Batch of 2 targets.
Target 1
Amino acid sequence: GWAGEGPGASGKNRHVCHAAARLEMGSLWEEFNRLGTEMIVTKAGRWELEWPGELQRLGGTPFPSPSLCRRMFPTFQVKLSGLDPLADYVLLMDFIPLDDKRYRYAFHSSSWLAAGRAEPAAPGRVHFHPDSPAKGAQWMRQIVSFDKLKLTNNLLDDNGHIILNSMHRYQPRFHVVFVDPRRDSERFAHQNFKSFSFPETQFMAVTAYQNHRITQLKIASNPFAKGFRDGDPEP
Amino acid sequence: GWAGEGPGASGKNRHVCHAAARLEMGSLWEEFNRLGTEMIVTKAGRWELEWPGELQRLGGTPFPSPSLCRRMFPTFQVKLSGLDPLADYVLLMDFIPLDDKRYRYAFHSSSWLAAGRAEPAAPGRVHFHPDSPAKGAQWMRQIVSFDKLKLTNNLLDDNGHIILNSMHRYQPRFHVVFVDPRRDSERFAHQNFKSFSFPETQFMAVTAYQNHRITQLKIASNPFAKGFRDGDPEP
DNA sequence: CCCTTTTCACCTAGGTGGTAAGAT
DNA sequence: ATCTTACCACCTAGGTGAAAAGGG
């Protein structure tokens, strides 16, 4: 579907007021949403600094090992239009709680039940698209994919990942921010961005899948889970 | 080693005149250079557009498959200093012929012999570091690695790879370019960059390794070639 | 004969859910 | 009981040189 408008679409800078975003993989998102999308959040384990021996032999420096956090699937991807091709933009995402409830999954009825009030909100973080900043022309040239975005339930995470509470519901949000070259651009900050929310991308954060139909749809549609597919060939 | 100065170090813009670059993995480069470094260049094969079936099922769009070109090993990596932390810089590399000769390898003497004049120079291309442009602070924060740079001998390559003639010698060059915000910045273009050449990184372009000791050093030091190592454990 | 291309097994690197054990 | 963690086999994706085949 197309663009949910940001709050207060009026009074926007001309560089963002015509911006539009189309969610990619819309039919897949909707398929998940009908079942109740779940996204895995795991603790980042905080492996020690890695120095693989190979690298050590070569005289390189150690680097942080890949975290154990999980990506989203489906991946949040949008096709942008209406940007100024020559202006600079920053693209980013955040996640807002959909309510102040905590949930549990009732296996007997295969449904989610409210189970008390939400836990204290995790530190609010944003994920900047790693190509930011870039010209409008470059953002519009192809699909923008947030496949580097990772979710964790580790409140102490220091890798900059998105921190979410398990068993809570979230709405991903997408923001287009015009990089205002004016000296006093702070004064116009509220005019220089436009936000998009796609209701079909909301999800429940979990540490393990609860709904078996979600598990099966993940296995069927995520290429990295091919090892768990039964032998039913698909064209 | 440290920085070979660019041509005409005088009259440089203050944003680049103090720039310095230290080559990483220097001892490995020197070990290769003592034997006569060789780098593989292969034709990019130009596979058809890939549409893996996975992606098709998910409603995605096809994308060009990875090319068959080869990276450099060792990878060209530098540690930068002396940049203005708040200024924008573009980093790039190019490759200049070391002479106008063509070579062949004499197996009986295990040495390279001149074998006529160079073939017409391939189209001169540059490789921009994919993080460009970025602030000086970000470039100086950690080692800058050109591991996405790929070499090909395909004169018709349209993936933007570096085109080299096999059996010719080359000197990699590294350039730091200050992004001048002045309107008439073209007038100062010659002042706004600084170039670095590390003699220990020069190499012979080949389609297959000629010197067996180079092959063995590549196998011993490149993690991706571990499958060809004999069972001699290294700490 | 000299050089290039193609294909291959074998790696690195890292994204999956399953499973069993652990925590509360 | 309910939720979380740790480890695992199994994938995707792609970087290696060997070996054989191809070309002039």
Target 2
Amino acid sequence: MSSTTEVCFNSNCKDTSEKWRRGWRRRTGEYAHLCDRCASAYEDGKFCETFHMNASGWRCCESCGKQIHCGCIVSFHMFVLLDAGGIECLTCAKKSYILTPNPAWPPPLHFLPSQPERMKDLSMKTWNAIAGSGPVPWRQAPSLFNGSSIQANDQLKVPFEVDVSGGIDRYGLCERLSMASPEIKQERSYERLANGKLRLGLPETLQNGNIGLNVKEQHCPFTSDFKPIYPRNDTSSNLSLGIASSSKNEIDDAPVSAILSQLPSVPISLGKQVCSQSGMDSSGEGQIRNGKSRGDGRSRNQLLPRYRPQITDEELQQISGDSKSVITPLFEKMLSASDAGRIGRLVLPKKCAEAYFPTINHPEGLPLKVQDLKGKEWVFQFRFWPNNNSRMYVLEGITPCIQSMQLQAGDVVTFSRLEPEGKLIMGGRKASAVPSLDQGEEVNVIGSEASSPGDASARSKCTDVISVNGHMKEKILEDKPVMHVKRKNSNLNAKSKRLRIENEDMMELKLTYKEAQRLIRAPAKIVPSSFVVDGCEFEEFEETEPVIGRPTLLGIDHSGEKIQWVQCEDCFKWRKVPANALVPSKWTCSDNGWDLHRSMCSSAEELTNEQLEEMLPAMNRGPCNKEESSGWDADLCVAVEGLDTLANLAIEGEGEGLVGSSENRTKHPRHRRGCTCIVCLQPPSGKGIKHRQSCECVVCTSLKCRFRTLMERREKKQVDKETEPPPSSSENLQGQLLLEKEQDVDACVGSDTANRSLNEEEAPNSGHLEEPNARKLSSSPLKGQIDLNIQPEREEDFSPRSDCGAVKCSLPGSADRFFRQQHRSFDSDAMENLLGKQDGVGCVNIISCVALDKKSG
DNA sequence: CTGTAGCATGGGT
DNA sequence: GACCCATGCTACA
């Protein structure tokens, strides 16, 4: 290539040539003009070997050992920086996952005009000033050295400017550098990088500058087990160190490797938070990854930590696929209740919206195409509402997308951009999937304890374990007493948190309350004793606790002896076991120690189909005859998968309220050690026990009486209704809902003693329906059930109250009063758990306790 | 009556 | 005290 330049750009070159060719691209955007010989060497990849052999900065490929002149612009594209430290030649890198070489430098226009001045300015500024200074190029690549004289380590007179993306700057290096005198700064930074003792502790001022140590970033950058957040192929964003030389300003690019090459082989991987501190906060750009800064001058102020993208390797891989597109994680947001609600409006963080989404001047906004991780394209309406002289940006129509990603409140949506296409990518992350500390709790490690590389594992562990989930974090605090964990910037407000917690509980409890009703029983041969507290009789099992067992069918043997039928979990055959046998929740034929002939699944079933059918309707009666037929009814079949959960809880002692230790339970005034009464067993989550079926305590007796009255009234009313014209559609709906609730209540109340007794004694017509449908047509919507939530005097109080799929069994006023009276010792939380959560828990509790307001009873 | 759109409010930062 | 933003409120279809 011809050129007007008469001198070869290679200062080491003494040749003159008539033929000029293009070499590497200079920072100015022009290309180095090389003589033919130098150009050939360059094109052959032998430039550095030829001219730079005496220069420092040679490093070996970690894989093949090939020497590469790192830190030289000429060889810049021939290697990649490894996350764990070291370099790899491009050939090896391509073999091992890394897809692209160090990206090119950004176009010249992204550099600030006068580099030395810029550096000078920066050296005088604190981090805060930098952070708030608006757009800052994604990397400072000041003039450094030319290819012929790489003596940066000796000639540095201007400090390193560390513009690492959320990595090193978070360790305070940036500020420390800028605060110190150039020489000292260089030395310090060098030392820190070299000895791997970047301090994690940050002064408060740094936090004010939004330099918070995020636990997610506490992976030690100096250990090989560092787990990069971003793909390793984007090493340019990982670290950007610039070394300015006072002697030569117009020299070409000084890549990261130039610095690294001057350093010992310190593994540095600092590019996790591309869009965060220096990426987002300092520049407001978040464009570091792709080396482009946005040309527009919109607001790029600091972004709250909770919006920093915490995108994972997997996600990025998923987004990018095998393409060489560069992904720019923009921001993420934890879905609030309203975001995830039906309205389908995602409130966008203002700064994010303004920074990364198109400028909109009208509230109507514009449609925005967003692609999800599966490649499906969605079109949302990106718009804003005027709000207090400001704007509130929303993304409308996200519901289908959210649902498609199966996200809910508390989960996180991430926004990235695919370059160079500029495509917006929306991803989702379940709250439990990857800890997103910034979303919920940001954890700052204060002090030097956690700063050494040796703490890396601990920090990693923290990262792994800490989640937005509060209690998990508490665990961490216990595990890591040396760390001061500071919560801040909870993105979930109380309501959202509650929502999420309740959702979680709901999932669990929806299973458990049904299961519990069938599975919790008194231990064998244990007759509960009872005592009265404040006029209410409580039942307790001395020195023992209720157990969780597998549902069984009670029957009578040929000899007239009472037996149980239990179904094998594997082969589903029914096996006969003694009536007093306590069958574990996971029971298979091989556990059948009572009948060795049928201790294998291959053994024939003793029960004939006819016999089984005879018994199964009883199961369909569900709660009515639970003791006699506590088998697999529809509800239970649905819930059967939750058996394991429940059983595991019990086994692991997590279900303290069921079978675990009595510690940490609510205690009543007469509590004494070992007390296992229903109050003491009352777990916060509502996995309470129930009275035994044979219980004839005052409470149960009263309950039976009360239910009898209720049943009589309802039957009477039903008869009246049947004589009336068919109800309207809305009434039908209500009736249906009522029946649905009834079914849930079945499960809830199902096995209660009073229930059973009542069904046997007082409501003989109920609970003998052959099919569920028949039951629906039954004259009594509450046949065979006791609903403590229903006041006999307010029998119309059957309106559905559940909106979550689980029954909301709020207490009637009288029961509520009673409970509050009887459980004065409950703390507010326990009370809330007991009464406030409308998820069926209360139902279990109430039924379990069979606490009856005697006034109404 | 229900669902939605747009704005207002107020707690939190 | 300003700003952000989650969500409540209300008018409207």
